[in-house]
């Protein structure tokens, strides 16, 4: 193995390390941050679901695991969500 090949392989491995894997909840929160304050139906359509209830379980998981990253406006329906 030459020094040039070693460098390229090392750089490829560094790129793989830099790409930290994200959970689906984090991806959903980033999308919510892009679209701003919205309802669950609007949020699920933005994520590509055809059903307005597509994110219901994911929203529950976000509320349980990362409550500091999600603001819920209104206690009753229609709930509006905002990502921090």
Attribute tags:
single chain; 3 strands; Arc Repressor Mutant, subunit A; 84 residues; mainly alpha; 54% helix; three-stranded antiparallel β-sheet; 4 helices
- Order the strands across the largest sheet as they lie in space: 1-3-2
Low-confidence stretches: none
The DSSP helix count reads 4
Shape-level CATH architecture: Orthogonal Bundle
Mean pLDDT: 87
CATH secondary-structure class:
Mainly Alpha
CATH topology assignment: Arc Repressor Mutant, subunit A
Q: Proportion of β residues?
A: 5-15%
Order of helices and strands: HHEHHEE
Structural class: mainly alpha
Which value, in Å, is the CA radius of gyration?
Answer: 19 Å
Tell me about the largest β-sheet: 3 strands, antiparallel
Give the domain tally. 1
Which term fits the overall shape?
elongated
Helix fraction? 40-55%
Number of β-strand runs? 3
Could you explain the architecture of this structure?
The protein is mostly helical and 84 residues long. The protein has a single domain (19-83), classed as Arc Repressor Mutant, subunit A (Orthogonal Bundle), CATH 1.10.10. Helices cover 54% and strands 12% of the residues. It has four helices and three strands. The chain has helices at 3-18, 24-35, 40-46, 56-65, and strands at residues 38-39, 70-73, 80-83. A three-stranded antiparallel sheet has the order 1-3-2. A hairpin with a 6-residue loop joins strand 2 and strand 3 (80-83). The longest helix has 16 residues, at 3-18. The radius of gyration is 19 Å and the shape is elongated. It starts with a helix and ends with a strand. The model has no long low-confidence stretch (mean pLDDT 87).
